[in-house]
Amino acid sequence: MRGYFGRKTAFVAALLATTSMAMAEDVEVLHWWTSGGEAAALNVLKQDLAAKGIGWVDMPVAGGGGEAAMTTLRARVTAGDAPTAVQMLGFDIQDWAEQGKLANLDAVATEEGWDKVVPAALQAFSKYDGHWVSAPVNVHSTNWVWANKSILDGLGIAQPTTWEEFVAAMQKVKDSGKTALAHGGQPWQDATMFDGVVLSVGGVEFYKKAFVDLDPAALGSDQMVEVFNRMATLRSFADDNFSGRDWNLASAMVINNEAAFQIMGDWAKGEFLKAGKVPGKDFLCFRVPGTQGDVSFNSDQFAMFAQTDPAAQAAQAEMARAIMAPSFQSAFNVVKGSVPARTDVPNDAFDDCGKQGMKELADASANGTLVGSIAHGHANKAAVKNAIYDVVTANFNGETDAKTAVANLVSAVEAAK
Fold it and tell me: CB 50: neighbour CB atoms within 10 A?
């Protein structure tokens, strides 16, 4: 009899699993990947899920930093209508998990061995109270410069390796009549440049002390005055029409020979690749001068919101499994410009910038020089991040000088803690 019941239990379990898979038809996905390169990368995931019989209900909310998407998400959750999956960054994941809104992905994570292949720096955001609540899609880093090689070659400019060389290069471009620095005047873009500038001034130790530990002395230091002075220098090399420009339009200026440089996360590479440009031939990728060896990172993850419908739960599990598959991690990140969230993915399919990014990420992780992005919610919670945005953008737009910005930064961070 025990054998009969054992066989019957196994049969029922298999039937339920099959039924669950059959029911796993759709995922409604809220995201902000709307640029050409991002949409191409997202299509890799859509196709992967379609091959598994899972439909994709698209809910894009434009806005490169994700603020508009998070506003939409709050409204959906308040109305009791949470999407099945949401693109999310850093501390936002932890905030929603703390509210008890996210699904538990431990079963899939254990089955697939995520603990062994996802770096601890990412797991700090993927897990809450020891439980997996999101699936990391990639690792981006923000302290990159993208450069138009033909403009630099035409002006006899070598790839700059120090801040002083970078300023001299931008001045030479400006003197030639072209735009030196392509930039989009949106708070998250200003803050993305700020990541690299902070590292260029004081390195990882200063970065952590000021923007992870929120030490008032570091926030109010002479080094921070120099940070804001360097931001003003960058502002002097942007064109007069930068205000409100989307980041991918700034990338297009470099792609189309209208500007020499852009400081932007490595998602920018997706725009260059979609335009048919080749690393080393048409464009250069290098760290913000003065930050070589340091990496400020953020990781796009898909957080799964708790669902009661078994079909939705099954679809979430399949989506999480698909996201973390090594084949998908390679295919997606090759297109996206980022690097895999798994440490066991070969770099064979990646271009030179991708291989460089993977090596630098691994080295920074090993050397203790990998830090969470201030701009992208991996250094502190949203309230502090937004307070920093306000100060950085006011200064970048010429509303405050460096010393005033530093004083404002100290008080704004203190109030937001």
Answer: 11
Residue 70, Cβ density class (10 Å: 0-12 exposed, 13-18 middle, ≥19 buried): buried
Q: With contact defined as beta carbons under 8 Å apart, do 103 and 277 qualify?
A: no
- Other C-beta atoms lying within 10 Å of the C-beta of residue 59: 17
CA atoms within 13 A on the CB side of 69: 22
CB–CB of 45/87 below 8 Å?
no
The pTM for the full model equals: 0.88
Identify the DSSP state of 319.
Answer: H
> Tell me: the pLDDT tens digits for 287-326?
999 999 999 999 999 999 999 989 889 999 999 999 999 9
Give the full edge-to-edge strand order of the sheet including 140-141: 140-141, 295-298, 370-372
Cα–Cα separations (whole angstroms), residue 121 to 89, 362, 372, 379: 13, 12, 8, 11
**E strand or H helix that includes residue 370:** strand 370-372
Of the candidates 113, 103, 130, the residue with the CA atom closest to the CA atom of residue 314: 103
Q: Both tokens of residue 362?
A: 């691994």
